Amino acid sequence: MKRGLPLILLAALALLLGGCAAPTLRSEVTAFHEWPAQLPDQSFVFERSRAQDNDLEYRNYENLVRDELLRLGFTDPAAAGKAALKIGLAYQVNERDVRIVEPVVVNSGWGAPYYGPRWPYRYYDPFYDPFWYSPPVVSYQESNYRLYRRQLQVGITRVSDGKKLYDVTVISEGKTASLAAAMPYMVKSAFADFPGKSGVPRQVELEFKEAKTKAPQE
Length: 218
Prior knowledge:
Elements: H1 4-20, E1 24-33, E2 44-46, H2 50-53, H3 56-71, E3 85-107, E4 137-158, E5 164-174, H4 179-190, E6 202-207
Parallel strand pairs: 2-3
Antiparallel strand pairs: 1-5, 1-6, 3-4, 4-5
């Protein structure tokens, strides 16, 4: 039994470390841009439709984008008509059903006890028995769930000539349909390493910092 203790301790340690891992949200980010080397005026205004003007959800996500732009050195003018850049954003959630069939070991391979040379005294030692292990029995387990594809798109256009300077798409997938939980991290992912390499998809993984905020299920 002493030889089995280290394996038990390692398994317990793995479970402990796994349980302590902080939840994260992983996003696929692709940005296309022709960002100028010099852009002295980085004042911006959001481009809204009439429906978006009275959409509380849209305005909340707009504020998240505004905070990121201000962090990057952009300026939010008091007079919207004097802005050099206009910002547009769109978002959506799509869903699909997922079916997974995966192998599961239903028999670990432990065989019948081996009786040693001191038979008939029923002495055995499984750790030294070459015939103790039998081939594992594998079954298949099916699981079904709904997967949500959350998408955010942000564009930055120069007002003077209407030229699109930056267009980024962020996609995250998980079992949570709510955009409200995922959007703060998707917005941060959209502007991570701004402006970045144009047309090169990358993964951005962010840890949930807010202890009181329920993390979306990935």
